[in-house]
Design goal:
Layout: H1 4-19, H2 24-50, H3 65-75
Helix pairs in contact: 1-2
Amino acid sequence: MLPKTKIDRINQLSKKAKASGLSTEEKLEQQSLREEYLQVFRSSMKNTLKGVTVVDPNGNDVTPQKLKNERNQNLH
């Protein structure tokens, strides 16, 4: 999870960009923070999906094989 201070900074830069624009340094900082945020978000989403089991209405496990393989790789 991204620290609250970084999320707050992303929001500050976004508001400033809408209101008055950003300097070159601020644009670079904003881009860097956004990339870091997306990396953390994607990692979290992947971990969440690894724990998901898909079940059809009949109760059969229909989890995609790719997801099962990914889950098994992390166990070994």
